[in-house]
Write a structure and sequence with these properties.
seven-stranded parallel beta sheet, alpha/beta
Length: 329
């Protein structure tokens, strides 16, 4: 009799939820968890794991040491889109396919982008704080030059599922939408521009691309200086793409009139970080992708892909070029 596949769940998802996802597999799979949510617990649990559901937080990182400890590892499923918390080179060298959950929260994040842009254009968070503090800043709100969204030129950096959906939503409101990505998309309902030209022509710049060695620091001081005066920045990508210090400097100089940030160089954002005290910044705790619908989508994506691996079918959304047929070790 073949031993059950051992599925190690590292993600901070409720144990009963994870177990319920794989109940239909019966005796073909066993779901386990680290004894402790720390480095020692991770390294102790990995040697017996056939499949790992990775941690989407900063807690249990699959770096080179962890990959080396996972001697039986045959497949890694990331319950997120970003894979920057894994050592992809080490996993690829070990011939372990890695899949993400591409697209599961595209609509959710795109709606956050649109909502954040609207909030910045109309100074909604500033007005809310002022009224809660006892004021009635009607004249001050008008003096802050609120903008109607349809008058804004929107530039989207990155045109995966999130960028494409955000472009569709902005276009539906009458915005002129442009995009940049490494590969032009002939089917895109937006205008392609080279990156520097895109930045220079964007009243609202949206970042929606993965953090890689190539994209780290991509929107730094030099590119932020290309923005039109009093542009707005919306970042749902990763903090390292537009470093916090560069964004802060652009706000202080007036090049940026405001920013909506769901991601930061360091998360959680340190309590004394100067971004926390700026009234022209909308802050969010890396939660743009969280909704009832996106959680359901994520559970379905992880369940279906891991089930496919156990049942000998090809998995989807491989991100490291390894063949999608999972071979048990």
């Amino acid at each position: 009799m073949t031993a059950p596949w051992r599925i190690l769940s590292l993600a901070p998802i409720g144990r009963e939820t994870v177990r319920a996802m794989f109940e239909p597999l019966g005796g073909a799979a066993e779901v386990v968890f680290p004894a402790t949510r720390d480095r020692a617990g991770l390294l102790a649990a990995l040697p017996s794991a056939d499949i790992v559901i990775a941690d989407f937080s900063h807690g249990l990182v699959l770096d080179a040491e962890a990959v080396a400890a996972a001697r039986r590892l045959s497949f890694v499923q990331v319950p997120a889109v970003g894979v920057d918390r894994l050592d992809l080179a080490a996993l690829t060298a070990a011939d372990v396919p890695v899949a993400n959950a591409a697209g599961f929260n595209a609509r959710c994040v795109a709606e956050w982008v649109l909502g954040a842009a609207l909030a910045l254009c109309r100074n909604l968070a500033w007005g809310d704080r002022a009224v809660r503090a006892g004021g009635w800043p009607q004249a001050e709100m008008a003096a802050r030059d609120p903008r109607e969204i349809h008058t804004q030129r929107v530039g989207i950096v990155g045109f995966g599922s999130i960028g494409a959906e955000a472009a569709r939503l902005f276009a539906a409101l009458g915005c002129a939408v442009s995009y940049w990505t490494r590969r032009r998309r002939p089917e895109a309902a937006a205008t392609y521009r080279e990156l520097d030209a895109l930045v220079a022509a964007s009243d609202i710049l949206v970042l929606a691309l993965p953090l890689t060695d190539e994209t780290r620091g991509m929107i730094g001081p030099a590119r932020l200086a290309l923005l039109p005066e009093r542009a707005l920045l919306v970042n749902v990508a990763r903090g390292g793409i537009a470093p916090d210090d560069a964004v802060l400097a652009a706000l202080e100089s007036g090049r940026l009139a405001g920013a909506a940030l769901d991601v930061f160089d360091r998360e959680p954002l340190p309590p004394d970080h100067p971004l926390r005290s700026r009234e022209d910044v909308l802050l969010s705790p890396h939660a743009a992708g969280s909704s009832v619908q996106s959680r359901r989508n994520l559970i379905a994506a992880v369940r279906d892909n891991v089930t496919a691996a156990v049942q000998g079918r090809e998995v989807r959304n491989i991100v490291n070029g390894v063949k999608p047929q999972v071979i048990r070790r």
